[in-house]
Design goal:
single chain; alpha+beta; 4-stranded antiparallel β-sheet; globular; binds N-oxalylglycine; binds nickel (II) ion
């Protein structure tokens, strides 16, 4: 999440989805109804029988690098990043308490009365606070979702006014959780570097003091899930994203693979990881930042807690020399400042992979 754009954007009335279903459980206002080609609910048979996204066992990657199991899992990781841009990790070693606790406080936050949540408003044109981000006009369609987003690290990106005093344990839990997520992201980036044949600290050395943000997405049930989307299709602007789905989570996340929306089936105690735009650029497109979206469910709510991990805003990003070859694999992206990219990302609506046009070299 970049420094906040100052703006006087007119976004019209943004109805709070939780309040909406309390007062009119069977009504879906016009502004949430998607054009026919964008709708979420209808899942084709082809989608149902699609291969599931890869699962990476992090306990295998804790073994000595010379061990066959380690090498096998690194190969799996490399395939996952190239072919899917998404994978789930199991045996990640995160304390159950930390994972459970953030889920609990996030739920408690969303269950508070609207007036309480509105003490932390997401202002139009910004990306932190409670509400809906990425809305830039009065006629733009809305997502069937309430969001609460916060910049976490470095502390300079925190807006203390937006860190809630209720639930009482929220800030403490988020700090503890974010610390663990930071360790996990650093660890995953070392494996990703190894899988590319690079030295393990290659990303960390480049990223400087990495930027970390969190977004909690709460998707209330929708009486017509086939008409709406929980979250518009997009790729993430981060280097790496970690998504935690609440324990009782139904299927909601879908990724675009071979022109088909493939559902990500929640696995117990797993986290979903995806490659963001930054790693796509750094690897000159070898590892993909894949378009994804969320759909809603007729009966059940869904909660996700999403961590975005990215380089410091000061860092210059361009495809790494090791992954460019003028003859066989020419450079596909221009060089840019990561802060400029983050600003570009948050000042445009979510629209598939369009944000990356910012850096693409068009032939
Ligand atoms: C995101 C995201 C998907 C989900 O927050 O960037 O892709 O299922 N979320 O909540
Ligand atoms: Ni995303």
């Amino acid at each position: 999440m970049a420094p906040l754009p100052i703006s006087s954007i007119r976004v019209g009335k943004i109805e709070d989805v939780q309040e909406l279903i309390k007062s009119k459980p069977n009504k879906v206002p016009e502004r949430f109804i998607r054009d026919a080609n964008e709708r979420g609910g209808l899942v084709s048979l082809k989608t149902h029988f699609h291969q599931p996204i890869p699962v990476i066992d992090l306990s295998e990657l804790s073994k000595p690098h010379t061990n066959d199991d380690f090498v096998f899992e690194i190969l799996k990781l490399s395939q996952a990043c190239e072919d899917w841009g998404f994978f789930q990790v199991i045996n990640h070693g995160l304390e159950v308490d930390v994972v459970d606790d953030i889920e609990k406080v996030a739920k408690e936050f969303f269950e508070m009365p609207l007036e309480e949540k509105q003490k932390y408003p997401l202002e139009p044109g910004t990306v932190q606070g409670y509400g809906q981000a990425f809305i830039f006009s009065e006629d733009q369609k809305l997502d069937w979702c309430n969001m609460f987003a916060l910049g976490v690290h470095p502390p300079s990106i925190r807006n203390p006014k937006l860190w809630p005093s209720k639930p009482a344990r929220f800030s403490e839990s988020l700090k503890g959780y974010s610390k663990e997520m930071r360790k996990l992201c650093k660890r995953l980036l070392t494996y990703i570097a190894i899988s590319l044949g690079l030295k393990k600290d290659r990303f960390e050395e480049m990223f400087g003091e990495a930027v970390q943000a969190v977004r909690m997405n709460y998707y209330p049930p929708c009486s017509s899930p086939d008409l709406v989307l929980g979250l518009s299709p997009h790729s993430d602007g981060s280097a790496l994203t970690v998504l935690q789905q609440s324990k009782d989570s139904c299927v909601g996340l879908q990724i675009l693979k071979d022109n088909t929306w493939v559902p990500v089936l929640p696995l117990p105690n797993a986290l979903v990881i995806n490659i963001g735009d930054t790693v796509e650029v750094l690897t000159n497109g070898k590892y993909k930042s894949v378009e994804h979206r969320a759909v809603t469910n007729r009966e059940r709510e869904r909660l996700t807690i999403v961590t975005f991990y990215a380089p410091n805003y000061e860092v210059e990003i361009e495809p790494m020399g090791e992954l460019v070859d003028d003859e066989t694999n020419p450079c596909k992206y221009r060089s840019y400042n990561h802060g400029d990219y983050s600003y570009h990302y948050v000042s445009n609506k979510l629209q598939g992979k369009k944000s990356l046009d910012f850096a693409k070299i068009l032939n």
